[in-house]
Amino acid sequence: MTRPPTLRDVAAASGVAISTASRALTKPGRVNERTATRVREAARQLGYAPSPTGRALSSGRTRMVALLVPDVTNPYFFGIVRGTAARLRADGYVHVLVDAEESVEAEERALRALRPTVDGAVLAASRLDDDRLEAWSHEFPMVTVNRPVPDQSGVLVDTAGGTGQALAHLASLGHRRVAYAGGPRASWSDRRRRAVLRTAAKRLGVEVVFLGPFVPRREDGAAAADAVLHADVTAVLAFDDLLAFGILDRLAERGVDVPGAMSVVGCDDVFGADLVRPGLTTIAAPLERAGHAAADLLLARLDPTHPGGTVTVELPTHLVVRGSTGTAPLRVVT
Amino acid sequence: MTRPPTLRDVAAASGVAISTASRALTKPGRVNERTATRVREAARQLGYAPSPTGRALSSGRTRMVALLVPDVTNPYFFGIVRGTAARLRADGYVHVLVDAEESVEAEERALRALRPTVDGAVLAASRLDDDRLEAWSHEFPMVTVNRPVPDQSGVLVDTAGGTGQALAHLASLGHRRVAYAGGPRASWSDRRRRAVLRTAAKRLGVEVVFLGPFVPRREDGAAAADAVLHADVTAVLAFDDLLAFGILDRLAERGVDVPGAMSVVGCDDVFGADLVRPGLTTIAAPLERAGHAAADLLLARLDPTHPGGTVTVELPTHLVVRGSTGTAPLRVVT
DNA sequence: GGACCGGAGACAAACGTTTGCCGATGGTTG
DNA sequence: CAACCATCGGCAAACGTTTGTCTCCGGTCC
């Protein structure tokens, strides 16, 4: 492990000053082409690679971007991780993945630690409250996913639209009374979906029973399933696939046939939605595209030559029908 | 976004030289306690935080560690990611996650790019061949998972031992002829499992049919399942859970009852193994612990006060029995 | 022939930190 | 009282890069 060559070595080898060597390698046209060639050749021969640290110190930019997720093991984030990673790599940025442990404190600790280290961050499903989130958004460049912040660019996945589509699907199968097993009150998606369901229900002539909030974890599906069974409905829309998995578990445990006696719809189409039996009908979210778009917005914002201005990208969803939804059972009219 | 305070500001505020301020904050005892207190107070008041970049340039260490995985969306790596992330965070290191896209070129590109940026790396399931891997291991500190490298520390998950256990489980259920749907030839785990199976088969009086290699993806399970059915066996050990998922898919498609007509055993116990129906009997690998141990070894190696020497940690596995294995069907003796 | 100009290279400062070394101060010891 | 030593603070170099500014040189224009 010998000391890697520096610009100084390149300069010495090609008989020019360090500044000239620097410009020869980074500012095309600034130095005589013959000299530049000489420098480049020396650099090649020595195997010179610029030191990111030196660069960062001088330029104030590290060419690193962080992705903050509340829980790396939640399959919801896989697509996002993949999307941001691909986009960042394309621009030669280093991808820093941070797990905020589902905790506000850990998330703020991470942001504090990262601020001087990264040029910007993508926040996927931040657990911060609105005020703190907005405060942080002034601290350094960030882009949020599924979480609008005033005067900041962001990516929104239109699961609300998909929810309307899912309700229509259920209505077309004859369901007349449907439960919504909702997510956390703080969730922006949840609020929007409730609103959409209310109007769509009216339009479709379907009754929607709102249940929850439930924590979107598989373990919490049991409580949700019990509430659903108690609500006298023939179908349930779950806040997300994890909750739907839990609901399926519990329904099987209680001997309720899916979709014969109860139809179940998830949301996101995460890894595993096609593993369960019956396969889970779900609202597919283009998560990889969302990650990609978020990174895209962030990189645009980091580019000093870029015009600026905030942009909100809204991505459409679509319903994937698998085995967990079917025609409504005949109900005994009392 | 105002310029963050530097050591220079702290020094000015407390009326000492920069060097004194630096020592007051990082070298306990080196400066007079009263002065040190004054400096610390000034730092606190200004909200001073040392610049990682400045530190890195001066010390040559970035306090960043990379985790290289072939594919971030493979659930196998979730546990590892989580384990390394937790361990690194505990020591205040920044966690850089890199997806090598299942390609040797991308992996080498990533290593080259990362070498000057991170202090070391954890390689989980590297796709590099032995020579290149060893060459890289001389270039900068690294720890491998499930991939022994000469003179380097590493973590091994004893799936081979688990495989023996799984075979015993099948034998106890009356299976006498079992298939092994193997993984890539390059896989160290695969080679070891084949060896273990050979001796265990002899001991248990079970015949093992070796099939494959198969690419450990769900899509490739179909080919594996067909080969298994053709091999006239009553049970199959799959290289990993993803392949097992695919095998289950295909068996269902072909109307083969699991576990009535065929028992299936996976490996790793990834997310989803308890979602499929029947639940997948599998060899549970302590992946989070593996990630933790790998990060642990790397940090020890990075610590200059540490004695040094290479260590190999071997982690045990255990069999998780779910619904996909059952008693062997009665075979018609021909 | 002098003024002007542009090209091309070099000098040096700046980014923020750590650390080797020196000097000053004050106290202890012989 | 001199010699020595420990304590504590400061100066300055070093890490590797970028970039503002200066100089030198040759050419062009009037």
Annotation keywords:
homodimer; 334 residues; alpha/beta; 434 Repressor (Amino-terminal Domain); Rossmann fold; six-stranded parallel β-sheet; six-stranded mixed β-sheet; elongated; DNA-binding
Summarize the structure.
The structure is a homodimer of 334-residue chains. Chain A is of the alpha/beta class and 334 residues long. Chain A folds into three domains: 7-50, Orthogonal Bundle (434 Repressor (Amino-terminal Domain)); 64-152 and 290-305, Rossmann fold (3-Layer(aba) Sandwich); 159-285, Rossmann fold (3-Layer(aba) Sandwich), CATH 3.40.50.2300.
Protein model, in words:
The structure is a homodimer of 334-residue chains. With 334 residues, chain A is an alpha/beta fold. The first copy, chain A, folds into three domains: 7-50, lambda repressor-like DNA-binding domains (434 Repressor (Amino-terminal Domain), Orthogonal Bundle); 64-152 and 290-305, Rossmann fold (3-Layer(aba) Sandwich), CATH 3.40.50.2300; 159-285, Rossmann fold (3-Layer(aba) Sandwich). Chain A has twelve helices and twelve strands. In chain A, the strands form two sheets. The first copy, chain A, has a six-stranded parallel β-sheet with strand order 2-1-3-4-5-11, sandwiched between helices. A six-stranded mixed β-sheet of chain A has the order 7-6-8-9-10-12, with helices on both faces. In chain A, β8 (235-238), α11 and β9 form a beta-alpha-beta unit. In chain A, α2 packs across α3. In chain A, 49% of the residues are buried. The mean pLDDT of chain A is 93.
